[in-house]
Amino acid sequence: MSLFLIGDSITLTLLVFLILIFSYYVYNLRTNNIFRRIGIPGPAPIPLLGELFNAMRRGMYKNDVALIKKYGKIVGIYEGITPIILVTDPDILRNVLIKDCHVFVNRRVIEGGAGPFEHGLTMLKDEQWKNARSIVSPTFSVAKLKAMHSLMNDVSDMYNERLLEYADKQEIFDIKTINGQYTLDIIASCLFGVETNSLKNENIILINHLKKFFTLTLTRIFLLFILIARRRQCLERRNDFIQMMIDHEEEIKDQEVGQQSKSLRKTLSDKEILSQALVFLAAGYETSNVLMSFFFYVMATEPVIQEKIYQEIRQEIGDNEVTYEKLNQLQYLDMVINETLRMYPPVLRLDRVASKDYQLGNYLIPKGTIIHAPVYPIHHDSEAWPEPEKSYLKAEKAKRHPMAFLPFGEGPRNCIGMRFALVEAKLGIVRALRLVEFERCGKTEVPLQLGKIIVLNSKNSIFLRVIRRSQ
Ligand code: HEM
């Protein structure tokens, strides 16, 4: 009996202790709320979760719209216990992303949590980032993209075969799955030098291919190093990212013969090359899939727009080869892709950290403050986008604030893969639309429900069907 009483009093003491700690935490959060001190408006934080609770409940994109509507263009929120300032004021954003970008070079990085991605561009900071970005940037030049074109074409051949199979069997399919296979195969082939061929094998679920890719067992790492070593010894060549990095190293060596060694490194180690390629896969796979999937959803639900794009393709390219130059002539297609990116921006927040105390509009923010640009409310602001369908015409575009459209971010830390992603998507789209017409079916969800996570995606599958075109 007395043992039970002792047990009860220990539980009670523990409970009181926990309540005291929690009350202190809530009191501390409220009185030391950094935003109160600075004067930035925002919601009272929910203990431990902050706005994460509402973001999970409503979806981040909807929650961001609600916050901006309620508190204005600068809002202080807590994500978990981390304070973050949301900024949608276009002039202030321009300062953060472009004019004062030297203050906002870095993103928030969780130290030690990046594993094999740790040398990747998204994670690197300050001089290390600048150095790596300047080495990697030329890989995404027009000339290098043209060199990768035939690798992309091979994958789009497989994509078309699959679409024709669906058309002939009159089969309804999930466009997200096949686009995921297309973007995985393209990125793996063009950037990693590995043929995943997920489009060839329907029975293997996409996730298995991704798992295979991201499970960097010792054997896999070893094999990837062998792949790089073979390229270094010129035992094989391929117009992909790894080859370009190796060629770049040779060029630098040639240039530096006879010169004194420079303090800034101009090449990447094998480990760094692998890390970059992995980050490209992570940053480019889902985002490109989302773009293409929403695009084909628009095609299926807006047949007039689909027909207009088809007519443009016939007029500008006909049955000829779809080259890089030809893709750039398709102006209407470009507008519809941009409008898709405006309506459904794959990346919902841009992220920067202040490297010193900074005057953010009317507020003095301390060094280390995290700034987020919530892209969805920016893209859906009716003041900036009074008539979206006209907004891509040259004259209207010139009037638009440059910070009103941010699907690929802005400034020196913007998306390095933007051109790559657009070529990849346009090539897949143009070659597909020449062969088949997309239609909605009984299982197509209209309107689409959107997912709740950081990359904007549809919540459910996007079921469509295709019909062979008769020419
Ligand atoms: C439709 C497709 C894509 C979208 C919408 C997209 C969007 C973005 C956005 C919004 C950012 C952040 C920019 C900023 O903070 O200002 C970003 C960064 C980045 N993206 Fe993309 N991206 C796409 C495809 C790709 C592809 C295909 C690759 C690689 C091949 C890629 C590689 C990267 C990298 C490495 C960064 C970090 C750049 C740095 O920190 O220097 N992205 N992307």
From TrEMBL:
CDD domains with a match to the protein in the record: CYP3A-like
UniProt GO MF annotations: heme binding; hydroperoxy icosatetraenoate dehydratase activity; iron ion binding; oxidoreductase activity, acting on paired donors, with incorporation or reduction of molecular oxygen; steroid hydroxylase activity; thromboxane-A synthase activity
EC number, as in UniProt: 4.2.1.152, 5.3.99.5
Keyword Cell cycle attached: no
One GO BP: prostaglandin biosynthetic process
Membrane topology type: Multi-pass membrane protein
Swiss-Prot/TrEMBL cofactor(s): heme
Pfam family, one: p450
SUPFAM superfamilies assigned: Cytochrome P450 (SSF48264)
Record's catalysed reaction(s): prostaglandin H2 = (12S)-hydroxy-(5Z,8E,10E)-heptadecatrienoate + malonaldehyde; (15S)-hydroperoxy-(5Z,8Z,11Z,13E)-eicosatetraenoate = 15-oxo-(5Z,8Z,11Z,13E)-eicosatetraenoate + H2O; (15S)-hydroperoxy-(5Z,8Z,11Z,13E)-eicosatetraenoate + AH2 = (15S)-hydroxy-(5Z,8Z,11Z,13E)-eicosatetraenoate + A + H2O; a hydroperoxyeicosatetraenoate = an oxoeicosatetraenoate + H2O
Residues reported in the UniProt entry to bind heme: C415
Gene Ontology CC annotations of this record: endoplasmic reticulum membrane
InterPro entries, A to Z: Cyt_P450 (IPR001128), Cyt_P450_CS (IPR017972), Cyt_P450_E_grp-I (IPR002401), Cyt_P450_sf (IPR036396), Cytochrome_P450_3A (IPR050705)
Subcellular location: Endoplasmic reticulum membrane
Highest taxon listed in the record's lineage: Eukaryota
Keywords recorded for this protein, A-Z: Endoplasmic reticulum, Fatty acid biosynthesis, Fatty acid metabolism, Heme, Iron, Isomerase, Lipid biosynthesis, Lipid metabolism, Lyase, Membrane, Metal-binding, Monooxygenase, Oxidoreductase, Prostaglandin biosynthesis, Prostaglandin metabolism, Transmembrane, Transmembrane helix
Transmembrane segments: 6-27
Main localization, broad class: endoplasmic reticulum
Keyword Metal-binding: yes
Subunit composition and interactions: Monomer.
UniProt function note: Catalyzes the conversion of prostaglandin H2 (PGH2) to thromboxane A2 (TXA2), a potent inducer of blood vessel constriction and platelet aggregation. Also cleaves PGH2 to 12-hydroxy-heptadecatrienoicacid (12-HHT) and malondialdehyde, which is known to act as a mediator of DNA damage. 12-HHT and malondialdehyde are formed stoichiometrically in the same amounts as TXA2. Additionally, displays dehydratase activity, toward (15S)-hydroperoxy-(5Z,8Z,11Z,13E)-eicosatetraenoate (15(S)-HPETE) producing 15-KETE and 15-HETE.
Similarity field: Belongs to the cytochrome P450 family.
The name this protein goes by in its record: Thromboxane-A synthase
Originating species: Adineta steineri
